[in-house]
Amino acid sequence: MILETEKSGVTRRDFAAGAAAALLAGSPLPAQAALGTARVITVDTVGGPRFGIKSYPGTLPLADGELVLTFDDGPLPATTGPVLDALARDNVRATFFLIGRNARANPTFVRRIAAAGHTLANHTMNHPWTLRQRSFEAGMKDILDGQDAIEQAAGQKIAPFFRFPGFADTPELLAELSRRNIAVWGADLWASDWNEMTPEAQLQLITTRVVKARKGIVLLHDTRRQTAAMLPTFLSALNQRGFRVVHAVPA
Ligand SMILES: [Zn+2]
Fold this sequence. Notes:
The chain has about 250 residues and is of the alpha/beta class. Helix content is about 40%, strand content about 15%. The radius of gyration is 18 Å and the shape is globular.
């Protein structure tokens, strides 16, 4: 499904490039369209499929140039707010893998994420480092507590999407998530924004990786200042280079 209306927004960035192209084409000056959300991909979670070639054999069926943006570990007001602002300016929808305790502490932001049309997903209650160091029972409890906390904060059900902290899964937890029809998300590429760096260095790193990979599930953290700071420019760079954002929702 192509959401043409999503492309109707205008961004002040890249105006010069659009204007130059219009002059060359002899047409009136257009406003550069926002990056937008090109289409929605519906994810069937029956059997607990696993996505993301960093950890698993397969990933989402994305075409060349298509990216699914995911943000982990929030919400935290200082950084999640600017991230949401940047996504809103470009009409981009993403998936947020929230930590339950952060959701409980910042319910306003959980509801703001939901109200903006992003997908809410689960990243455990307490972000154990890692679930491989916990018993199966303790691990499963932290996963289910996270889901409950996010749903209580949101006032609605969340997507049956789960991402392991540090991608540290276990065969037993994977089997149980499969039994519960919860999709497990890894990533196809990441920003490495757990490492401290300047917004400029962060922008350079993630842009280089996206250009090389051409498509995939991108992992970022809305809890990182460097990520929040570079996001508007990153979205603009994706737009300039012809990338398209795909929004993942559960079936
Ligand atoms: Zn995390």
